[in-house]
Amino acid sequence: MKKTGIALAILLAAGVAATAGAWYTGQQLEGVLQDKIAEANQELARQLPGSGVQVALASLERGVFSSDVRYRIELGGVAQEWPASELFLIERIEHGPLPLSRLRELRLLPVMAHSQARLEETALTAPLFQQAQGAEPLRIQTTLGYDLEASVWLNVAPMRYADAETSVSFSGFEGEFQGSAERVAGSGHFERLELVALGAEPMRLDLQGFQLTVDRHQGPSGLFLGEQSVALDRLELHWPGLEALVLSKLAQRDQLSQTDNQLAATLNLEVGELAYAGQPLGALRMDWSANDLNAEAVVALADLIGGYAETLESDPAVAGFSPEQEEQLRSALEVLLAGNPSLNLDRLSLKTANAESRLSLKVGLSKPSMGEALPPEALIQQLISRLNLQLDVPKASIRDLVGYQALLDASLDPQAVAMEAEMMAEMAADMAVTTELATLQGDSIQTRLDYTDGQVTLNGQTRPLEEFLAMLSLLAGDGVAIE
Question: Which partner from 124, 305, 408, 422 sits 20 to 30 angstroms from 313, CA to CA?
Answer without folding.
Answer: 124
